[in-house]
Input
Amino acid sequence: MKEAFLKRMQEYLGEEYPAYLESLKQPRFRGLRVNETRCSTDRFLSIAPWECRPSAICPQSFYIHEEHLGNHPYHLSGVFYLQEPSASSAVEVLDVQRGDWVLDLCAAPGGKSTQIAAKLAHTGFLLSNEIEPKRARVLLSNMERLGFSEYAITNERPQRIADTLKGCFDKVLVDAPCSGEGMFKKHEQAMEDWSEENVRRCALRQQEILRSAYETLRPGGILVYSTCTYAKEENEETVAAFLATYSDMELLDCGVSFGRSGFEQPGIDAAKVRRIFPMDGGEGHFIARMRKKGDAPRIRMRTLPSMKADAYAQAFLKDQLQEPDAYLYTQGTQVYARTQPFVLLEPLKVVRQGILCGESVKKRFEPHQHFYMASVHQSHLLYVHDMDQRECEQFLKGHPIASSQRGFLCMRYQGFPLGFGKGDGTWVKNRYPKGMRIGEQVRLC
Ligand SMILES: C[S@@+](CC[C@H](N)C(=O)[O-])C[C@H]1O[C@@H](n2cnc3c(N)ncnc32)[C@H](O)[C@@H]1O
Output
């Protein structure tokens, strides 16, 4: 650990500093958050084979001891997201309500976006933006796995979002890129990269991102700013500088009982912001909740009428779903679906909006994994194969499964979707994406 960093922590924490040093020797907190659009928390607790200790931060978040749950069928079917409970704090403070239009400006890999989308429960709209193309793809795979449909992912600089979508959102989350001091146990690289100069650079970038966030918010809208660092320059000082620039923004109490007050800082009431330290049962987090004064409805984004898909897509959708998707959007050979109208996001770089149903190729329709993972499709799917544990393991490894069914089938385990296959009357040929298959040696617990 760098001397200069430890000296700052000693100044911040005073007599609590030894407790912080002690926390560094402890294993980091681990946890998961149940995706209630897939499985109720009560049901999850009745089927989870691990000890799940409740957190005071979010009712769906639990502390666990297990380290390798990425290959578990409940994870692969989007029943839960691996997230240490204190990382769920910012979205709890954002207080998302059904029907809200929400922007998550720095969204990958999607811990907070998946939490927001679960709270929206297929109502309203979530725009998840990520500046790094590779990270935007990871965000997409998480949104698909957890089965969401009423969202879009863009891959843009925050200023481009602000230029295009002024005043369009009820709630905006800036989970800012930061020096990551709270994540040193998880990401050793953050410790290597730490310097006071980097802290200052991060603070400047945070100011820039907050300026964009401000523009996207409607009057009366809520802006939550969060980091996973302890540096005052990136937390209280960033918020104070932002509030000094925008006189129509006010700091609100976070309205939660977890964590502790912030550090004293001229220009803000430190009792209103929240800090979480390892001594509070989490990794390092900072959260501030702000409101744009006044009240005005959000500016409505232009929406599109449902588009007509080609005959192959239409035949596929009619064959597979009891109730057709309400809105379709086609782009080239690809077909997308939503329960609400598609919004016009041009000229933004859109990675995905809605469910990718599949694509028409060579006079047939080739479905996509997302079609079978989408939560809104689950009760309408006409062809399903329920796998036992042995079949589930075989399926996740890419093997065929014995079945007398024909055509495309959603492959489920304990009622949770994992993907799809195509039956020929004897076998279901495996369509679980090659890049997602688990190794031959893996045994499901
Ligand atoms: C703390 S992480 C977000 C974590 C995410 N909210 C979650 O819960 O999974 C910050 C993100 O901001 C992105 N980022 C980096 N520079 C940025 C910039 N100048 N503007 C916007 N986002 C940026 C990073 O690529 C990173 O994905």
Q: What stands out?
A: The pocket of S-adenosylmethionine is lined by residues 106-112, 130-132, 135, 158, 175, 177, 205, 209 (CB under 6 Å). Residues 304-436 form a domain with the Nuclear Transport Factor 2; Chain: A, fold (CATH 3.10.450.720).
